[in-house]
Design a protein that fits this description.
802 residues, alpha/beta, five-stranded parallel beta sheet, 26 helices, rod-shaped, binds adenosine-5'-diphosphate
């Protein structure tokens, strides 16, 4: 590169290159060459080529060189300046010198205090050493002057000179360390040869290139070579500029960030927020242990960078912080190994559950299929049945059987879609959906997840929660489950989902379609007794720290609890009562250090209070117009009283007791049927015109619906119209048609067990329901008499003897 910047003389090595200052361009000295002697002193320059016309200030310190200069200065002030072939040679011999150089005139010598000479000289003409005539004490040589050839007024030459000027100016412009005045100086040089020499002398290139320039005789060729060297320089300067600009921009950016961070820090200090450095450090450390994918890493990084810039006391800070905490807490690809040991599974199921043989078999079949298939893409198990029947505990045993963590999510009363899909982070109090929350707790990506009460998931203005649930359970979609709060996809496909429901009817149809329904009906007295003996009592004993204390709860006490203190299909109430007994024993043991060895009925009453239920419901049936039906509810079976009465009116029918449409229709059907068949049942037809009939089903707070009360309503009305009491201890269930046919209904086991609990002795059912009765273990229905009928006539005959 052209070098104009260093204008200070510097003392250096021996003869050092110093900035070449063109003090003048007046090279024409007509008599100069004529006055030259035959022999001149030779000055060797280490890394500089002097060109004619150019003024060069240099310092010299080598003895040989000092002598050359001193002798020359003392005589004609003329010296032959040549370059050394190698700049590293300290004591050059004749072979180390270039033979072509420039004859110079010494303009001034300045002696420095340390013996070094500063010499200012001006190149005059090119020359060639012909013979070295002396080597010591300094080189002397005979020479010939080299004349420039070629024309300096051709168009090509002029164009060349213009280009040289332009290129040199451009180099000056883009080189930050060349003063801009240099281009002004260039502009003012009129002598083209001087221009060439001046630029050549200032070239930043190779010594050899400069030497070649000097050696070319043809002025046009010299200009041409110079131009190509300049172009090379220009490209290099441009490149250098680009690189330095780029690094400068990068540096600027870094500096800016540093500066902003410092500012932010001081703003944070001013605002008094606590430093979050420690939290962030801990989060980063935790993140290093995670095996998550690139995408999650990126989201985490983004979040943490944001956190670093935030003030800890702003509300946004906790939003970002909580989000990152969730990402860190969630298990990502952390699986427990799949273990489908069917033997172990059978053992776990048997260990915790009495009976339920068919159900256990179905669960094992299901697990066997999962084992063979190796994925979770099979229908989802759904345990349907009343509360306290062991649905949850079956789910737990499945998890234990296959060695996975168990999590339960209660979905009862869930309507808001966001409870499943999560709330958007921007909402106040936003949270992830329940699935993600559960996974966060479980710390494992493939737990057994029990979704409790899927039948109670609904739809409202906040969206369709059951649709969201469907997405969770659908193996085609759940690998990319997106939670709005998490803002990332999560793979749910490895989770073993199990669902539970009380009522099959209220499960959303599309959801039901995905489920493999396993029906669990209520337990009979005998089963409950066994469950209490084998499972509930030992479990509660342990839970209350009473394993080492000797006492007994005899079977009669257990049966009394079941019959007189509970009225349920499952065993939850029973379990609670047993727990109450255990608490009482624990208190006695701790306070009095004594316990009853046997919890007899007297002690039981002291602990649980007066009996709550009676099995004898018959005493209530003392008037005509009252019949007992059997009903199925999501909480198990129950008996249903249907009351009716007559009063003066115009023969219309009124229904009360929170009845649904189907039940109302059953009542109209029964009424019409009796109107049509009054003769047969010895009914006074006036009743249909002159009397008002009111049917009421008590416990009006509970909604009731369904066709199964049909035969009960008809029997109830017949009893009312015929003024005849119904046979004692009789209950019934079945649908009626206008023509007096009896149709089958569902929930038979639950209904029969409920009838037995209430002390019913005879039951009327449709003939088609006989098979359902046969499915029930005979010991559970011992003492019950069944009438299987097809027509209403039979029902009325059994119930009223008509
Ligand atoms: P659900 O989920 O159906 O409402 P749970 O599974 O919570 O009922 O059962 C309530 C209690 O009854 C649990 O302690 C459970 O262990 C017990 N239980 C229910 N059925 C059985 C059974 N067949 N054998 C042993 N214990 C049972």
């Amino acid at each position: 590169m052209l070098n104009f910047d260093n204008m200070n003389f510097k003392q250096d090595d021996e003869i050092d290159f110093l900035p070449i200052m063109p003090l003048t361009e007046n090279m024409e000295d007509d008599h100069f060459e004529e006055n030259l002697k035959d022999e001149i002193g030779i000055l060797a320059l280490k890394n500089t080529v002097l060109f004619p016309g150019v003024i060069l200030p240099i310092t010299i310190s080598r003895d040989k060189s000092i002598k050359t200069i001193q002798d020359a200065y003392a005589s004609d002030k003329i010296v032959g300046v040549v370059a050394q072939k190698e700049s590293s040679i300290e004591e050059p011999t004749t072979q180390d010198l270039m033979l072509k150089g420039t004859i110079a005139k010494i303009l001034k010598i300045i002696k420095m205090p340390d013996g070094v000479l500063t010499v200012i000289m001006q190149g005059k003409c090119r020359f060639e050493i012909t013979t070295i005539s002396q080597e010591t004490p300094y080189f002397k040589a005979q020479f010939k002057v080299l004349k420039d050839t070629g024309k300096n007024n051709t168009a090509t030459f002029k164009a060349l000179i213009d280009s040289i000027k332009d290129t040199a100016t451009k180099i000056i412009q883009i080189s930050p360390n060349i003063p801009v005045q240099a281009s002004l100086f260039l502009k003012n040089i009129d002598n083209p040869t001087f221009l060439i020499h001046f630029i050549a002398g200032n070239l930043n290139g190779d010594m050899n290139e400069k030497q070649s320039l000097l050696e070319i005789d043809d002025i046009e060729q010299r200009a041409s070579l110079l131009l190509s060297l300049l172009n090379k320089e220009f490209q290099f300067a441009e490149l250098k500029n680009k690189v330095s600009n780029k690094t400068k921009i990068e540096l600027d950016k870094q500096q800016k960030e540093y500066y902003l961070n410092q500012q932010l820090k001081s703003i944070k200090d001013e605002l008094g927020g606590e430093s979050n450095d420690k939290e962030i450090k801990e989060m980063r450390k935790k993140a290093e242990t995670k095996k998550w994918g690139k995408h999650i890493q990126e989201t985490f990084e983004k979040g943490i960078e944001k956190l670093e810039r935030m003030n800890t006391s702003t509300p946004d800070y906790s939003t970002v912080y909580n989000h990152l905490e969730l990402i860190l807490d969630l298990p990502w690809d952390e699986y427990s190994t799949n273990e489908y040991d069917i033997k172990k599974a059978r053992h776990a199921l048997d260990n915790y559950h009495f009976g339920l043989e068919k159900i256990k078999d179905r669960i094992l079949e299901y697990l066997a299929v999962l084992k063979l298939k190796g994925d979770m893409k099979s229908p989802i198990l759904c345990f349907v049945g009343p509360p306290g029947i062991g649905k949850t505990s079956l789910g737990k045993s499945i998890a234990e059987a296959i060695d996975r963590k168990f999590i339960k999510i209660s979905l009862g009363g869930l309507h808001d879609e966001a409870e499943i899909r999560g709330h958007r982070k921007t909402y106040i109090g936003a949270m992830p959906g329940r699935i993600i929350q559960a996974l966060r707790k479980s710390k494992i990506s493939n737990p057994v997840m029990l979704l409790d009460e899927v039948d109670k998931v609904g739809t409202d203005y906040k969206g369709d929660a059951s649709n969201a649930l469907l997405e969770v359970l659908d193996p085609e979609q759940n690998a990319n489950f997106y939670d709005n709060y998490l803002e990332l996809e999560y793979d749910l496909s490895k989770i073993l989902f199990i669902t539970t429901a009380n009522n099959l009817q209220t499960i959303q149809p599309a959801l039901k379609d995905r489920l493999e329904i396993i029906d669990l009906s209520g337990y009979a007295l005998e089963e409950k007794t066994e469950i209490a003996k084998k499972h509930l009592i030992p479990k509660q004993k342990e839970a209350h720290g009473l394993t080492k204390i000797n006492f007994q709860i005899p079977e009669t006490t257990i049966k009394t609890i079941i019959e007189k203190y509970t009225r349920e299909s499952g065993v939850r109430e029973l379990d609670r009562h047993i727990s109450a007994i255990m608490r009482n024993i624990a208190l006695n043991y701790v306070s009095k250090n004594e316990v009853a060895k046997k919890i007899d009925l007297e002690i039981l009453q002291k602990i649980l209070g007066k009996e709550r239920y009676t099995t004898d419901v018959y005493q209530k049936i003392i008037v005509p117009g009252l019949a007992i039906g059997l009903a199925w509810t999501p909480f198990g079976g129950d008996i249903l009283f249907i009351e009716s009465t007559l009063c003066e009116g115009k023969g219309d029918l009124k229904l009360t007791g929170n009845l649904g449409n189907v039940m109302k229709e059953s009542a109209s059907t029964a009424y019409t049927f009796l109107k049509a068949n009054y003769k047969k049942y010895k009914i006074d037809p006036k009743v249909f015109n002159e009397q008002h009939v009111h049917i009421h089903v008590p416990e009006g707070a509970t909604p009731k619906d369904g066709p199964s009360a049909g035969i009960t309503i008809l029997t109830c009305l017949t009893s009312l119209f015929a003024n005849k009491k119904i046979k004692p201890y009789l209950a019934m269930t079945g649908e009626i048609t206008l023509r007096g046919q009896v149709l089958p209904v569902g929930g038979i086991k639950e209904k029969i067990l409920a009838a037995k609990r209430s002390g019913i002795k005879e039951i009327i059912l449709c003939k088609d329901n006989e098979k359902d009765v046969l499915d029930i273990e005979t010991s559970f229905i011992k003492g019950l008499k069944f009438h299987f009928v097809e027509k209403m006539d039979e029902v009325i005959h059994i119930a009223l003897g008509l």
